[in-house]
Amino acid sequence: MTGITLKEAQSRYREYLDAESKALKGQRYKIENQELERASLSEIREGIKYWENKCIEIARGGKKITTMRIIPRDL
Q1: Quick one: residue 32, left, alpha or beta (phi over 0 = left, psi -120 to 50 = alpha)?
Q2: Which of 24, 28, 47, 67 could in theory staple to 16 by disulfide, Cβ–Cβ 3.0 to 4.6 A?
Q3: Does residue 37 fall inside a structural domain?
Q4: What is the pLDDT of residues 22-55, one digit of tens each?
Q5: Cα–Cα distance between 11 and 7 in angstroms, integer?
């Protein structure tokens, strides 16, 4: 996604947080013999991580988040 603003990314992030809240309140329900399920909670949480990272990336001026792991060695 190119050209997205921080405001747009934050809005999408809030939508995913709202979806998570709604899914947690009523993930599954049954009406007579039919069982219905809302969106997958794991997919919603992946979206939350994506949009959280996108907000951080845009706020940093387009620099992606990188993680480094340092393993000490015995000398």
Answers
A1: left
A2: 47
A3: yes
A4: 888 876 766 677 777 767 888 889 999 999 999 9
A5: 6
